[in-house]
Amino acid sequence: MKSFLMHWVPSVAWLTFVWCALWQDFKLPNLAMGILLSLLALAVFKLPTLYLSNHFNLWYALKFLVYLVWKIAQASVQLLWVAITFKHPLNNSIIAVQLRTSSDLWITAISHSMSVIPGSVVVEVDRTISVLYFHVINTETEEEINDFIKQVRTVETMILKAVGSREEYERILDDEREEVAL
């Protein structure tokens, strides 16, 4: 019973929400249909189990949200400036970033968060070694490339502090202590 609650209930809730959002109707009959279809989908398609960390830090989640909105605004202004100054040619880069997490869920969250920020998009994910490859606009110098890698690391750190497992949270804190010591 606990396994059902831990693994099916979040999936049913999420699939039901998606169903209702797609129909733009959260009335009782549509909710019931969403629950029924969610249960049917989970029974027929045997979706992989989603393991949640049971760790949520509201403070770090809010910090991440503010940081993400700030980076989206900042990158939008930078891209606007690049577009109106007609600087040609642009020097773009493919940048590989090694992540500290190996969780598919967090790799996906990090890649989507970075892709929402204008000027960069994930072009490849190597799950076996936890590397994301980004196409980044207007990166001319080694310093700009390192700044982008630092930005990805910051997003990863914020996500793992907000919702990562205890082990990932401790690993992030250990890495931060090592960086301070250097």
Automatic annotation (TrEMBL):
- Bilayer-spanning residue ranges: 30-52, 64-84
One of the record's GO molecular function terms: monoatomic cation transmembrane transporter activity
Q: Which domain of life is it from?
A: Bacteria
Give the bilayer topology. Multi-pass membrane protein
| UniProt subcellular location | Cell membrane
Q: Does the keyword Metal-binding apply?
A: no
Of the GO CC terms on this record, one is: plasma membrane
Tell me which UniProt keywords the record has, alphabetically. Answer: Cell membrane, Membrane, Transmembrane, Transmembrane helix
Family, according to the entry, reads as follows: Belongs to the CPA3 antiporters (TC 2.A.63) subunit E family.
> Which NCBIfam families does the UniProt record give?
PRK08965.1-5
Please give the name of this protein: Cation antiporter subunit
